[in-house]
Design goal:
It is built from ten helices and twelve strands. It is α/β, with parallel strands linked by helices.
């Protein structure tokens, strides 16, 4: 285990950049997983991280020491920081004091859609994106495709909201969704507040490419026109629409319900 005590250390400065800058994360192809749950999920589902960073206080936490023990047994790199330096990197308030530095996967679209998938068109709120990823993983969906305007999936806020879902999903970013839908071999379904067909009246016992759009503007018109179905989720209360993450969860689990009935 290595210890850094100076803010002027080059390695520490790099961690600070990685924590605070989306541009730095994209440029380096790395991100930080902050917290015991994300670190445990990564170890279980993806393997060893590039580096583990722990605070001095966390070295007295049994869960953290279990993680550190697993890593050191496999000769992985562990870095200890004084609490003040660690807290300047961590974006989790009152966190436990452990994070992983990991490589972010870069995937290129190589085949037409043939299984159920999620397509996110300019969904900008990180919390919404993370919640959608979590619901998709829970519903057994494996693939997620994001347009260039969608929040970066490997940002800290998306990672925290998804609670480990990233590690069971294949996530594609900066995707031309129109080209993807055009070449798709499966039914595509877009949600729209102006649609007349109800979600519950569509046969979902087959693979579906689920299209969800910008929080205010919805799915772009060109994508809407390409969708096999445009559907609405009926609601009784006097609200204009559902939050996009709530809408996605309803859709995914209606498909689960139909497939299990």
């Amino acid at each position: 285990m290595k210890t850094i005590t100076s803010r002027d250390n080059a390695q520490y400065k790099e961690l600070v950049k990685l924590a605070g800058s989306s541009q730095a994360r994209r440029k380096s192809g790395r991100t930080l997983l902050d917290g015991v749950h994300l670190c445990q999920a990564y170890l279980q589902l993806r393997g060893l991280p590039e580096q583990c960073i722990v605070s001095e206080t966390a070295l007295h936490n049994p869960e953290v020491m279990d993680i550190v023990g697993q890593l050191e047994a496999q000769h992985a790199h562990v870095l200890a920081l004084p609490d003040a330096l660690y807290n300047a990197v961590s974006q989790v308030e009152h966190g436990v004091g452990v994070m992983f530095s990991v490589q972010t996967p870069e995937r290129a679209v190589s085949e037409p859609l043939a299984v159920s998938a999620v397509l996110l068109d300019n969904v900008q709120d990180p919390g919404n994106v993370g919640s959608i990823l979590r619901s998709a993983a829970a519903a057994g969906i494996k693939q997620v495709y994001c347009s260039a305007g969608t929040a970066f999936c490997w940002s800290p806020k998306v990672l925290r909201a998804a609670m480990g879902a990233h590690f069971v999903l294949d996530i594609f970013e900066n995707v031309d969704l129109a080209a993807l839908v055009s070449a798709s071999k499966v039914t595509s379904l877009a949600t729209s507040g102006y649609a007349t067909q109800r979600l519950y009246d569509v046969d979902l016992r087959q693979p579906v490419a689920w299209l969800f759009g910008h929080e205010g503007q919805g799915v772009a018109d060109d994508l809407l026109s390409m969708a096999t179905h445009q559907v609405v989720i009926p609601h009784l209360g006097q609200v204009e629409s559902l939050n996009v993450a709530a809408c996605a969860a309803v859709c995914f689990f209606e498909q689960v319900r139909q497939n299990q009935s």
